[in-house]
Amino acid sequence: MVLPSEILISMKRIEIVINEDSLGELRELLEEANVRGFTVIKRVGGMGSTGERNPEDYALAENNAVIVLACEEKQAERIIMTIHPKLKDFGGMCLISDCKWTIGPAVSY
Amino acid sequence: MVLPSEILISMKRIEIVINEDSLGELRELLEEANVRGFTVIKRVGGMGSTGERNPEDYALAENNAVIVLACEEKQAERIIMTIHPKLKDFGGMCLISDCKWTIGPAVSY
Amino acid sequence: MVLPSEILISMKRIEIVINEDSLGELRELLEEANVRGFTVIKRVGGMGSTGERNPEDYALAENNAVIVLACEEKQAERIIMTIHPKLKDFGGMCLISDCKWTIGPAVSY
Amino acid sequence: MSLSSLLVPAILFFALGMFACLIKSDLKFPPDMHKMIVIYLLIGIGLHGGKALASSDMASAIPAVWAALAFGIGLPIVAYIILRWLGKIDPLNAAAISAHYGSVSAGTYMTAVAFLAGIGVTYEAYPVIMLAIMESPAIMIGLVLAGYSRKVMGGATKADKGMYKHLLIEAFTNGSILLLFGSMAIGWVVSDPSYKKIEPFFELIFMGALCIFLCDMGMEAGKRLSEFKSVGVFLVSFGIAMPLIGAACGLFVGHFLLGYSVGGITLVTVLAASCSYIAVPPAMRLAIPEANPSFYLTLSLGCTFPFNVVVGIPMYYAAAQYLHETYYPLV
Amino acid sequence: MSLSSLLVPAILFFALGMFACLIKSDLKFPPDMHKMIVIYLLIGIGLHGGKALASSDMASAIPAVWAALAFGIGLPIVAYIILRWLGKIDPLNAAAISAHYGSVSAGTYMTAVAFLAGIGVTYEAYPVIMLAIMESPAIMIGLVLAGYSRKVMGGATKADKGMYKHLLIEAFTNGSILLLFGSMAIGWVVSDPSYKKIEPFFELIFMGALCIFLCDMGMEAGKRLSEFKSVGVFLVSFGIAMPLIGAACGLFVGHFLLGYSVGGITLVTVLAASCSYIAVPPAMRLAIPEANPSFYLTLSLGCTFPFNVVVGIPMYYAAAQYLHETYYPLV
Amino acid sequence: MSLSSLLVPAILFFALGMFACLIKSDLKFPPDMHKMIVIYLLIGIGLHGGKALASSDMASAIPAVWAALAFGIGLPIVAYIILRWLGKIDPLNAAAISAHYGSVSAGTYMTAVAFLAGIGVTYEAYPVIMLAIMESPAIMIGLVLAGYSRKVMGGATKADKGMYKHLLIEAFTNGSILLLFGSMAIGWVVSDPSYKKIEPFFELIFMGALCIFLCDMGMEAGKRLSEFKSVGVFLVSFGIAMPLIGAACGLFVGHFLLGYSVGGITLVTVLAASCSYIAVPPAMRLAIPEANPSFYLTLSLGCTFPFNVVVGIPMYYAAAQYLHETYYPLV
Lengths: 109, 109, 109, 331, 331, 331
Ligand SMILES: Nc1ncnc2c1ncn2[C@@H]1O[C@H](COP(=O)(O)O)[C@@H](O)[C@H]1O
Ligand SMILES: Nc1ncnc2c1ncn2[C@@H]1O[C@H](COP(=O)(O)O)[C@@H](O)[C@H]1O
Ligand SMILES: Nc1ncnc2c1ncn2[C@@H]1O[C@H](COP(=O)(O)O)[C@@H](O)[C@H]1O
Ligand code: NA
Ligand code: NA
Ligand code: NA
Prior knowledge:
- By secondary structure, chain A is an alpha+beta fold.
- Chain A is built from three helices and five strands.
- The structure holds adenosine monophosphate (3 copies) and sodium ion (NA) (3 copies).
């Protein structure tokens, strides 16, 4: 990509899917890891090792939440190390990939 | 990244956007391909070759669904080959990218 | 990946998170940049440089929107250059990463 | 009919909604609220109609059914011809728009009912059958017009058989049509004491709930108004002329052929003059994906609906009154 | 009891919902609408019950409490035995399903109330206490059965203490139970003039709102019907036999032990025959994650609920009438 | 005023909501439900007020308008001084919090109306005008205080002209203010027979719907209570002292300057004592992004609102009664 590096910086993108009820706990962990920015999508469904989860189910509505966060590599390591031991309680999944952050108004990573 | 490979494994991330009505059919295809985990976001809007789709439209509410799934490379190939011939009916799009999966409680990929 | 290149083509994935109120303005910018396809998730929450945003808050419901779009590299550059100067007003973030597009029914990128 | 009779709360709330949109207020109703009120109103109107029909002479309902079918088939053809020859609109957009005018708007119908209730005018039980019947033939004639247009345009007929079958089924299993017919049937069969139990919910508070619905509709209409530019002068004029043509047919049929009272004629006229925004748009989107939805939605929601609600209904009522006093019906 | 007494609007709307599902209509109510109506109905039934209890003799309520506890504990054990020995169902699924049958379905109870109201039959104030009480013991007995099953199956007992405590608390802080008890308490304490102010909302329009609720339930039941195949013949039969067993117990207790009127016996019978779909499913999902939710949901929503609503209630009423006319109660 | 007069259902439901939150129940109302009920209640209160005003002497409304403006401007200044000099709160947070206290809480107002209705006390038509008027000046004085604070703090004035204009417009086009004024206008102009048609929806079932609203508010207040620690002792005390100061002003103005009845004085007092949580928070978030929303939201929803609903209203009523019996008004 020919975009100048003043505009794009290399970062990590972390994508976590957990039970919406565990969101509060996860947020505390993220705060511990000094995370300053993340995005949360609620009322999400899915299928995993514990079966199907459907937020629109009539009698058994179960919500997942997707958390997306972009951060620097070092920060990503810290987050993974903080979250990893707790993933067992949260269920769900945690993915990491490379991305480029477009430098914008304020630093929120 | 210096994170140990006991924690992170290389995987593929597949992201599909389709008409929410076709979700049932897609899920059957995914089951055929032995997919054990995926995440579904409903009530999603968008723009594509068939024009705009807006779930909050007054008279013409049209919903997309986003399906995100992480899986091993081989599995990804199988999924793409299974879905590919049907994409025509589903509309929408299907993206694949590299990611790392944080080893957690249970294997749901 | 051994999938044939008739099925997969290399593309860029752009993921933007902004205040839902700025969605209209962003869409105009995207149209200017000749974007033909994108996906929008509304009613999204998050945390950033301007504090927390929670669409379910009782008295202060604030919505973000996530826009995901896949496009060719050149197009991605154009989009970034168009959006970049405006990011200040939108707040939020804009990430770019590599992905592969599964060739489907129609070209909507 | 004095000016104050125009001050029907439902219509004032419609105006409030449009006003909110005009001054760019941040007023916004949750999208699901709209869906819920529509469900409630459709059931309410169905139950009420069914109950009224149960105590009516059913033989007399037959002409209403014929009239509904005639409107559903005839009006789209008229609309199509006007759009094609006068407006030079391309065939597929013309077909999609036309289908909407053969159908009806339950919202306009309910506003007319509120208007008549406000001035204390009674009406026959039959127009509600027409309301329930008219959506389906309009969808089907839309399919026929689209098929014809595709043939005219030459090239691949592209008539996807499976989709047509799907749409024909859809024309009868459509949620709102089903709700209307279903609750009409329920209103018909339940005993009076049973009906009394559910009447407070479906009748007593109906008019108030209608106000909230129309306030929401007003905001939507206001939003659509801003798209007038992209739709063009001809189509906007069509959106006002077509309900007038429909109204003329409605007045004629309602008075001369059906021989209804002033209230009944008004309702028949409103049905003929109104234009669907519930069942037809999704059907046309599926059947004629080449047509531009912003055309038919802007016409239906931004043009014909507000015209009927604000100007049309009192006008049709005045015309019905005039006809009723001046001419004898043919039946 | 004539046939027309079966034409209760609420039940007809249930049928309409099932019909919509059968013909694959695209009718769909917003998911939040269902949640809102449930909140409203639970409060309404609680308030009404609390008000009725306030003017009743509270000493006479004690036997109802005992009966509720007996049902809540006894019926799941009966169900468990049948499922294990007759059906050879694996222990954990059997435990999860059983728990549902010790609990009650507020929807079925309200339909029964609508049915009695429709034919003008009065009833005691006490069954509503039973409704509120029965969810919690059923959840607890479900936990006990699950623990027993795990022991029987040998291996790691896997009894996560923390989770059990969590579930016990949950059995009492559960939202719907709280809403029911809370509004019952409010109905109890408020003065008559105060109650009159909120009565129109919670009583006058109650029966109509119930219709919309049951239409939605009908669609859900219809959807679940399609999963009968994956559930198997035995479980489907169980879903019809178990309410009959519960009903027999209910009839016996209601008439002989509690000595209620025909209306009261009918309600007690409905409570014993019905099967939870509100508080118990999430509790069992947490307590017995190994059990397949599609089993207990299909049984509860697709089988026992429609059976009770369509066939059960009038049958239980007829049986209650017969008992009442034929035998003296034991009390 | 006996103890039982405190057992207003609406207030009991508020307590139930707080209780649910305290025992950590999983009770949760859908977020859209709250928005819908607020829309309904605002329209209902507007219509009712408009109707009452239509039959009132409008000249007598002028003093109420002046009083509303005085409260809207005066109370925030008082609050700002207290917060800055007594509490050493930083200027921008002080400005943001102050603005809330110049405005009103429609929920508190409606609870007061329910309270008065419960004990059968009548009131003037004018306080509802004050309710509608008071949001806007409070927002504007908030902007002024913020500008002053920024100047005091030195540095870049950062006064973004565009944003200020935007906020001034917003102060008048705000959805809830528009809904209140709009429905007030509609209530004013519609004829009595027309109003009768929508009265069941907007008046008859109003008090019941208010109960559900307050139950939800109770849960929200309960949630906010848990944030008391992060807000600090001074601010929590301020959240109770400030409504008392406002109430004192309200009592004085309502009795001596406006000369209202006991019911009217109570409502004026409630308006002065209450604190916005609808229109002001989003305006302050935009105008003073540096201020911490958890401060003003916790004060408004977790502190002042519950205080007013549970303790304040009966207290203000008692004080109004005392004043009315003891002193002559000045007018
Ligand atoms: N392989 C996967 N790909 C995408 N989402 C997943 C995957 N595995 C689990 N999830 C999500 O995580 C949630 C909980 O997973 P689990 O705890 O394994 O049941 C599921 O409901 C999915 O939404
Ligand atoms: N290039 C793209 N990037 C992101 N989303 C897309 C893209 N193209 C299509 N979509 C999504 O797929 C949906 C259906 O696309 P289509 O079938 O092309 O109309 C759209 O409504 C979008 O939500
Ligand atoms: N580092 C980040 N990762 C993910 N989302 C972010 C990040 N920073 C900001 N956001 C999103 O962008 C929104 C606005 O950010 P801001 O304008 O910085 O307050 C936030 O509410 C988040 O949803
Ligand atoms: Na028509
Ligand atoms: Na039972
Ligand atoms: Na105030």
